[in-house]
Amino acid sequence: PFKEWYVAFDWIYDHGSNSANRANTLYSGLGTDIDTHSRVNLSANFYGRYQWENYGASNEYSWDGYRAQLKYIVPISQFSNGASLTYIGFTNFDFGSDLHKDNPARTANATVATNVLLYSFTHLRFTLVGRYFHNGGNWQDGSELNFGDGNFRARSDGWGYYA
């Protein structure tokens, strides 16, 4: 069922104004495309995570955890005007982080599931995106935080949307 294997990388960089506002994360590992014998395109990646800057968190400049990722693409329809409608999704499950060991507001794991409807012409695309977060950013949902402007409760579980 495995069509090919490859070395996979995912580099996420947020260049904030200083180290407390900056993140630099490299996921590196192995990936594969899976033959589903259907219209569904399926890929799976398994990464180790190296964390450089991380908004001042305790896991900076260390290997800290892993990511299992599943990506899926389903063509829904082709239209007579040349446009197409496609569902694209990916789920990232991050686990094995040590962030929770020195801060009870942090977690060892986090999940993000991204769901996209893509309406595409030759030179123009429209997207609707819904993302579900569980322990987003490795923050424990409901934990009390204070980044200098007063206490507040983390809302790291739930849905986000954009178009």
From TrEMBL:
Localization, UniProt: Cell outer membrane
Main location, first listed in the record: membrane
UniProt keyword annotation of Signal present: yes
Isomerase found in the keyword field: no
Pfam families for the chain: Channel_Tsx
Top-level taxon of origin: Bacteria
GO molecular function, a single term: nucleoside transmembrane transporter activity
GO cellular component: cell outer membrane
Cleavable signal peptide: none
Gene3D superfamilies, sorted: Nucleoside-specific channel-forming protein, Tsx-like
Keywords, alphabetical: Cell outer membrane, Membrane, Signal
Family: Belongs to the nucleoside-specific channel-forming outer membrane porin (Tsx) (TC 1.B.10) family.
Name this protein carries in UniProt: Nucleoside-specific channel-forming protein Tsx
Source lineage: Bacteria, Pseudomonadati, Pseudomonadota, Gammaproteobacteria, Pseudomonadales
